[in-house]
Amino acid sequence: MANIKSQKKRNLTNEKARLRNNAYKSELKTLVRRVDEAVSASDKETAQDALRVVSRKLDKAVSKGVLHKNNAANKKSGLAKLVAKI
Fold it and tell me: Which residues form a coiled coil (predicted)?
């Protein structure tokens, strides 16, 4: 760890951000899993509702800087294709 006071502070804020980002990513994975489960069960209504929720969360993650916008767009596109196949 650095001896510089400002770097010590920065390390603390980086750690907080890392924990927050990991929690957000974990929640996103859970929401994506719900879409996949609904698709595998051929439940179109549930899948569409889950897709709507996960799309909003992905957009929110982009605005918070957790994900890159192209990464979120690719995830949304892939999930939308899965739901459309039902």
Answer: 2-34
Burial of 9 (0-12, 13-18, 19+ CB in 10 A): exposed
Give pTM, 2 decimals.
Answer: 0.85
Interval 13-26: pLDDT, tens: 999 999 999 999 99
Instruction: Give CA–CA dist 84/45, Å, rounded.
Output: 11
Instruction: In whole angstroms, give the CA distance from residue 57 to residue 28.
Output: 7
Look up residue 41 and give its DSSP letter: T
- Residue 43 corresponds to which tokens in the numbers above? 């439940």
Q: pLDDT for 25-48, tens place per residue? A: 999 999 999 999 999 999 999 999
Integer distance in angstroms from the first to the last C-alpha of the chain?
Answer: 53
